Amino acid sequence: MLKKEIISTNQFVWMLFMIITSITVLEIPGLLIHSVGRDAWLAVMLAWFFDVLLAIVYAYMGLRFPGQNFIQYSVTILGKPFGRVLGLMFPLFFLLAASNLMKAIGILLSTMILPKTPMIVILTLGYLLIAYALKKGIEVVARVSEILSPIYLISFILLFITIIPSVKMDSLKPQLAEGFYPIISGSLLIWSFIGICIMMAMYIPISNSPSDGFKAKFIAVSLGAFVISILVTFSIGVFGSEQAGNMINPGLQLVRVVSIRNINVRLDAIWFIIAIGAGILTSANLIWASSLGISQIVGLSTHKAMIYPVTLLAFVISMTSFHSSRELLNFSLYVFPLIGVFVEIGLEMFLFIMALFLKKRG
Amino acid sequence: MFFNIKNRNHKNKDVTKKNSMPSASLEVYTEAKLEGIKISNSIIENIEIINKIVGENTDLVTRHFTLGRNKLIPAVLFYFDNMIDSAHIDLNIIQPLLTDAYTSGLTTGPEIIKAIELGNIISRGQMTKVNEMKTLTNGLLEGDAVLLIESVNEAYVLSAKGYAHRAVTVSDIEPVVNGPKDAFIEVLSVNLSLIRRRIHSPNLVFQSLKVGKVTQTTVCVAYIKGICSTELVTEVWSRISKIDIDGILGSNYIEEFISDEPFSVFPQVRNTDRPDVASAALLEGRVVIVVDNTPKILILPGEFFSLLQSAEDYYNRYFFSTVIRLLRYLAVFIALTLPAFYLAAANFHQELIPTDLLVSIISARTGVPFPNFLEAFLMEGTFEILREAGVRLPRPIGQAVSIVGGLVIGQAAVQASIVSPLMVIVVSLTAIATFTIPQYNISQSIRLLRFPLMILGATLGLYGLMLGLLFLLIHLASIRSFGTPYLAPLSPLKLSDLKDTVIRAPLWVHIKRPSEIARNKNRMDSNKN
Amino acid sequence: MKKIMVLFIVMTYTLMGCSDSIETEQLGIVTLMGVGLDENKDITVVIQEKLLENQVTGTGGGGSTTPFLLYKGSGRTISEALQKMATDAHHRFYFSHIKIIILDEVLLRTNGIKDILDFYERNQEVRLSTWLLISPKGKLEKIISTDLGYNTDTGTILEEIITLEKNNSFYNYNNISTVTEILNTSGRELFASGINTVCKHLECKSSDKNGANEKFDLRDTAVFKDTKMIGWLSTEERRGLSLITGTVKGGEMTIPIKNKALSLRVTKIKSKIEPEIEKGKVHININVDLTSRILESQTKLDFTDENTIKMIEQIQIKEIKKDITAILKKSRELKSDFLGFGNYVNMRYPLFWRKMKNEWYSYYPDIKVNINVHSKIENTGKVHNA
Fold first, then answer.
1. Chosen domain end from B275, B302, B329
2. pLDDT, tens digit (0-9, with 9 covering 90-100), for A318-342
3. In chain C, what residues touch B361 (CB-CB under 8 Å)?
4. DSSP H helical ranges for B185-226
5. Which domains does chain C possess?
6. What is the ipTM of this complex?
7. Beta B127-130 vs B270-272: how paired, if at all?
8. Is C141 helix (H, G, I), strand (E, B) or coil?
9. What is the largest distance, in Å, between two alpha-carbon atoms of chain B?
10. Half-sphere exposure of C178 (CA within 13 A, CB side)
11. Residue C23 and residue B459: Cβ atoms within 8 Å?
């Protein structure tokens, strides 16, 4: 059973798309609209552009150190003690992102459909599912993503098509009323979230064609950015920027106002549930990356032993952090972007420069 | 205990009464014990040994005769009554030996033996010479006749199988409207002939082995050389040969032993009783296992989507088949989730239900004493009981069940306000949806999985339902059936294979075989370039 | 053993989840909600719960004679009022199926709309696509308690009326989402549709109290300034409003021709408001393109003649211009920019708007407005001439 797990490029794309989309859609569109206003889509586009640039670095590093993810090559580049400390940042970041996402899912569920159910029930069951999925291995998670992600994308497309009649494009005007500053700050915000696709560095070593890493990432990020920008645009178009920015989850509200020929289609819970499913699978991916990274740093031969402890740790973090939706909001708006930018961009660029400087190759 | 009594009887032979237990040798002949016993020159010795092994059976027929007019040589023919065709024995074995030999001028025993050696006297087709007692008894027990001749240290095993069996009839389990209608029966050789009749290829291989220490059932592995991958055949062969069981009474015995995930609810082997389906599977590069005494054959690997296909799909026009296939997938989804979804919507997400429907649900439920969840379980449970009763009962009484069931569930229960009419609709829709699934074994799994999903839907609403479905999806994605991912070709995605999975594309589009299974992937010459 | 443990945890946890489960028959489906003010300046809430068919027994029996139940309560907030009501109801009120929300004129004139809307935005059960109507002073309870005798609840009836009329008439219906959006938009004031009861038959006895002879009238439009309601519009003004804002898709209009009447159906309306800045002053250009067909003619006109059609088009344009002028006049009188001119300025000249946002209403009455109307009659019905 020690056969090496391999994912196909197709699965690579879908997994990455799911990670990007669910982590952004479930956590920040409201925040983004709140801070950027009508130009939110521009911020998304800008973040997309930055992210593609960043992806080049990641893809290059993946090829320069074949068969290694960034935790491994940070050790290769910087040597054991320092490389390990630096490399530990990535799994910890994934752990943080996963537990943060699960908490966001829990809060959304308890505000939207299960107000009286204790948070511990929602989270325990979610994490049990994650543990089960990870026990089966990343290959299985990849296959499930390959089925669930297209459904997720289709649910978005259906939503967009049905909502078009209610969209008032006038609400998007005027553009650039506040100048460029909010766009740039907003793009940093959203970049730190779609930057979670540095997961690609974890996938490249197990991909069946590592050279397609950049292509896969490009497709996934473009799809993700497309979905997010349309979502924020339409949210503004339907609700106006003030109201949309005020909502916890504009996407869900958007589904609630879908009507076909004046008949209200009450299918919001179903869309919401698909999004939640994708979110749980995303967390599974992140926890996999985290446990793999930690096991590599500790020096274990297989990451299977780390799965349960890491899942449990994520569960504990989710349970104990953020006692209210406001705390989560503040965290997502101020703290997470800082950490995200530091890990996703800072560390990787540092490694990149060091690799060139020290002329290290894998 | 029992042995002791028998022992006593055996000892007090003199006082045995008319109907008392006849003497039987208490020796148990295992495979190992039979091993190495050679057939001797002396016919008397041989008869003694055979009598020791199987002699106490009433259905053993021992026919003594002598060969030749001069130099008489005693000979004996053993066979089990009704396992052989007695007309064959008379016409093709006994008659040639006793009469025809003389008319052709052979008079002495040795002459006749020589002629038999050359194969000139016995006109029965299959005749093998054996010199070991083990093979002799095996032949005898399988329904062959055994000829022993004095001073010949070999026996002739003559195939004259002719036991009573069902005729080849219309398939009960997978009936079709168009398409061939014949179905496998309990006899292995007939079943093999039904496949052979469809595939006239020298590369079609039937290889058999014996499974079951006591029953010694013949299990035949069929595949087409060059299309089927050798690893698959080797794997199947090794798994079957590892089976350690005393008896195989049906093909699902084999299925349970060789499944990859024995703890999974989902069947990982496809069953069929249709030779055309078996042939189609062979042509796709699959392995078919035919088990003696079972009309159900096994097809490996059996992935999820192949279990949802019906033979009819290929005999109808492809437009219609495509629509039916999509409809069937919808039906599977309905059968799996409808009651759970109903519970989730009625208990948690009442906003999903249109106002008028919600009002009618409420008015239907006023007066029903049970909560939604209990009502649903009650109904689904009753339905399963009724279905089981309908299957178990003899056919003439089976009709009564449907009448009682229809009345009790449909009419009286509603009128007595035990259940609401809407629940009846939900349950019957679910039931009808399960009927559209062509494979009985997967429809059983789906029926079973409905209940945990109902619990989840009733306790956590759509979140619970989603968790359940995601769990199922992860489980399905993790299973492999003989190396093939269970959800292939949907995941891992093989776009070219989807044309025979999601839809049923016209046959001339199926240029390639399923890529996860077949070794030789080209179905058509046009694909060679 | 481990598996059994996990299964046990899952079972106990799922069963704990039951706390959100509610049996359908415990729900009271609210389809209509009215909010008003009582004498103590507290908020009164009147809600209508849809009754099930088997609970309505008609004239005989012990059940209710109306197809709905009414609950009334008051408090400082809507939630408080609902809480008080819930104590004497045997159902849990369920708001996901609210079709219509009716707000009282007095409430809107004194308290404003913004505080009221917060409840609907925050509550996860109420949908943002719920329609919002405004009842004239003192009529709220009468409207909600009126049983029209269609054997169904008022909320459903009103929703049907709105979906039917929405695309076929010059009325201005807004749902919560639109109302909130307008309130949040800079340079735009709110308008919303009103509701009233009128007599169904031509002769109406005022003594008739049971409502069977009445019907709902949803033609009125209320206008707001700074979240507070300030007045009602007349028929002409309403048509002008809907033509300018482009919220309607068409409707019927009758124009006078030589002392006779000609009815037209407007099938397509395209309106465009374009602000323009010249020497630091704002002009507004209103362009309205209409496509109509002839519904009914009492005249002896020859519709095969191109000039006749041209003449009709001209008369229609004149009528439309009259409507638009009327609404402009009203808007200037009330000093309320419910036509959204300020918003258009903002869209086009955001920097300019930021400067003049605060003193917009000092400019507003003097802004020059050019009205351009184009009309095209493309269809004369099944016949050419009368």
1. B302
2. 888 877 778 888 888 888 888 888 8
3. 24
4. 188-196
5. 24-232 (no CATH), 234-386 (3.30.300.210)
6. 0.92
7. unpaired
8. helix
9. 103
10. 19
11. no
